[in-house]
Amino acid sequence: MKLGIVGLPNVGKSTLFNAITNAGAQSANYPFCTIEPNVGIVAVPDHRLDVLAEMYEPDKYTPAVIEFVDIAGLVKGASKGEGLGNKFLSHIREVDAIVHVVRCFTDDEIIHVDGSIGPKRDIETIEYELILSDIDIVDRRLDRALKASKGDKKFLAEAEILKELKAHLEQGKSARSYHGGDEADELLKELPLLSGKPVIYAANMSESDFQSDILSNPYYQEVCEVAREEGAEVIPVCGKMEEEIADMSSEDKMMFLSELGIQESGLDRLIKACYKLLGLISYLTAGKQEVRAWTIQEGTKAPQAAGKIHTDFERGFIRAEVVSFDTLVECGSMAAAKEKGLVRSEGKEYVMKDGDIVLFRFNV
Ligand SMILES: Nc1nc2c(ncn2[C@@H]2O[C@H](COP(=O)(O)OP(=O)(O)OP(=O)(O)O)[C@@H](O)[C@H]2O)c(=O)[nH]1
Ligand SMILES: [Mg+2]
Q1: How do residues 1-58 score in pLDDT, each as one tens digit?
Q2: Atom 11 of ligand 1 has which residue's CA nearest to it?
Q3: What are the strands of the beta sheet with 344-346, ordered from one edge?
Q4: Is the CB of 9 inside a 6 Å radius of any atom of ligand 1?
Q5: Ligand nearest to the CA of 112
């Protein structure tokens, strides 16, 4: 599961990526500094693991991770091959969801490709390129469906949906916001559309704006307005500050943030929100050897979740012994939870929940 960091040139994508991965991708004050996409892996912050680590004092601590790709800036005309056009679009095609970085910081030293700060306009510029590229794809598929419908009438229904979708895109609306019923949803899953990918907006704020009343910031509000129409989430971040604190130890970071009156860094919030955007949840295992978060898709049943640890666990699945994180904390220890009968025995049909602490029983 990969997230692509997308946006106009020079809006702070690589700065944010650096903070995310600490990987040192080049960031500099000129457009197209990022040519090849950089891939970085980052731990998903999870306070539950810290609590478990205190309980078990394990030898190993393994958080969930997600992958981010730093994609070069997209410009007007990209869908027609401008800038590094098609190449960028193909990088976006490979990711499962998009983090759309929008410049909300003022800084006369940093060039804006369109000469001024304009979050709504910037978002539209990017969306427009994605939509144009999608129209090409829908067009090709429509041609195919129309030809096929001469031999087989069932393709007529597909062609109708594609015509509707095309009209929707031609109004400048994203595939994400197209709702044409179950059949249309199925078809959309097959089409590799860019504007249909789930999105989160990262509003890249100035340091001073980030520390003051973010909600009343007009640039931030502009991003929120666009996002609201799409039902998307907006996370305010300060790329520059995040880059500075990314190197700090977790104690130093907490101290630094609490001095600013902030509980959680924008980046931590962003990473968590991305995990959710991908439809991912974590179940946890805890013991003296290791406390660990395991990533599963929401809706995964117990045997398949067990299969993440080892295929034998899935093949020979007997049952899962489950206690929720909150219950464990209330009881104070696993032994106490067991004594109170609060560790449940779940079978093959059990749908895993986020924060379940699990011991799998299996036999092969
Ligand atoms: N003042 C301020 N400057 C920032 C912030 N974030 C990034 N910058 C600066 O903006 C310039 C561009 O940042 P990058 O992270 O390289 O931008 P990018 O979006 O990756 O650019 P391309 O790869 O060229 O598309 C750098 O000089 C950064 O230091 C911020 O929050 N505040
Ligand atoms: Mg860059």
Answers
A1: 899 999 998 999 999 988 887 644 555 555 555 656 688 888 898 999 999 999 999 9
A2: 29
A3: 60-62, 290-297, 280-286, 356-362, 317-324, 344-346
A4: yes
A5: 1
